[in-house]
Specification:
This protein is mainly alpha-helical. It is 57% helix and 8% strand. The chain is built from nine helices and two strands, in the order αααααββαααα. A hairpin with a 2-residue loop joins strand 1 and strand 2. Helix 1 packs antiparallel against helix 3 and helix 2 runs parallel beside helix 5. The longest helix is centred in the middle third of the chain and has 14 residues. The relative contact order is 0.09.
Length: 148
């Protein structure tokens, strides 16, 4: 069954919201590009039917939250999920990293270590530098591999 009429109706409603979205988007992010991304993201989403039939206000509010964070609803930076009849905006890992980098408050971002003993030791130590000092490792490169 084709959802083309529902997608076209959503696209029209989204275009009517473009002025409010434009005011929320960070500099450098075009409102037309963002709207195209939202329509593409919804039309290719696994929950497309639920998203299009869910509460429109929660759908537009979720799109506005993504716009204010400057994240694309592409399933990599952020996605939309339905719970009952409500649409919820959920930033993904790449989106959280983008937010962290764009905040200008974070200097370095390291991946979490997956080895239980090392993770537990770092949890007990205050920083990774303390862990490196405690274990005698000269640099994080020996622990984590080359950093880029």
């Amino acid at each position: 069954m084709s959802n083309l009429p529902a997608i076209q109706a959503f696209t029209k409603d989204l275009a009517a919201q473009s002025k409010s979205l434009a005011s929320m988007l960070p500099e450098g992010l075009d409102v037309k590009k963002f709207c195209r991304n939202v329509v593409t993201g919804i039309s290719t989403h696994k929950q497309r039917d639920q998203l299009l039939s869910a509460d429109r206000e929660s759908l537009f509010n979720s799109c506005q939250k993504a716009a204010s964070d400057g994240l694309m609803l592409d399933g990599k930076e952020a996605t939309l999920v339905t719970f009952k009849n409500e649409v919820v905006y959920m930033p993904m890992t790449q989106g959280l990293i983008k937010l962290a980098r764009n905040s200008n408050e974070i200097k370095t971002l390291l991946p979490k270590l997956c080895i239980k003993r090392i993770a537990l030791a770092i949890k007990r130590a205050w920083t990774i530098n303390q862990y490196l000092t405690l274990t005698g490792l000269a640099s994080a490169e020996k622990l984590l591999g080359p950093m880029q």
